[in-house]
Amino acid sequence: MIEVEKKFLLTRKEQEVLLLGAEKISVSSEADIYFDYPDWRLTCSDIWLRERNGRPEVKIPITGNGRVGSTDRYREIDSSSKEVLTAVGISFEDGLNFQGHLFRDGLVRIADIITNRSKYRKDGFTIDVDDADFGNGEVHYSIVEVELLVGDESEAQMAEDRIFEFARCHGILPTKHARGKLIEYICRYRREHFSALLKAGVVSHR
């Protein structure tokens, strides 16, 4: 499946309007550990490797860059450690756990983020309301993601158009792309890394 999503920084009133009549699906806590090589070759290729609550996951762009227009489009792989490792070019070895494979190949932890997530469903869209903790038990960043899953790349543009129309119907203008949690963390605390992402065209100053 391909994940097409738009991130928003909303006021409390905008969030209330967006969630009016939405079905609350779940509330969860997500402990994410992100990994990359010391030269940032994965993130500078727009590849995002993490362990979420102990489960290996990777997001890989469906084109050269997962940022297409004002939405993000990624293929998410989380079926098994072997498939995740293979997707990023790491050979699988029986007897090693996921992090053991990463450290064997020279990857390092680049961020630890805990997120309290409230998930909603409305009009066929999934809405995630995330409060992210960057390290001391306080909320450092709050973001809302509106998401559609599609089965094929040919459906991605239609999904983006639907997300924009959904936002406009709730008085939200999708004119400015908000940073994801990890990008915001890197921007605040890993400036050299952020500069490398800017140079690689993975992120922008906006």
Structure write-up:
- With 206 residues, this protein is an alpha+beta fold.
- The chain has one domain: Hypothetical Protein Pfu-838710-001.
- 27% of the residues lie in helices and 37% in strands.
- It is built from 6 helices and 9 strands; from the N terminus they run E-H-E-E-E-E-E-H-H-E-E-E-H-H-H.
- It has an 8-stranded antiparallel β-barrel, surrounded by 4 helices.
- Strand 3 and strand 4 (55-61) form a beta hairpin.
- Helix 5 (181-189) packs across helix 6 (191-200).
- The longest helix is centred in the C-terminal third of the chain and has 14 residues, at 156-169.
What's the layout of helices and strands?
Layout: E1 2-8, H1 12-19, E2 23-36, E3 48-52, E4 55-61, E5 67-68, E6 71-77, H2 81-87, H3 98-104, E7 108-122, E8 125-133, E9 141-150, H4 156-169, H5 181-189, H6 191-200
Features:
single chain, 206 residues, alpha+beta, Hypothetical Protein Pfu-838710-001, 8-stranded antiparallel barrel, 9 strands, globular
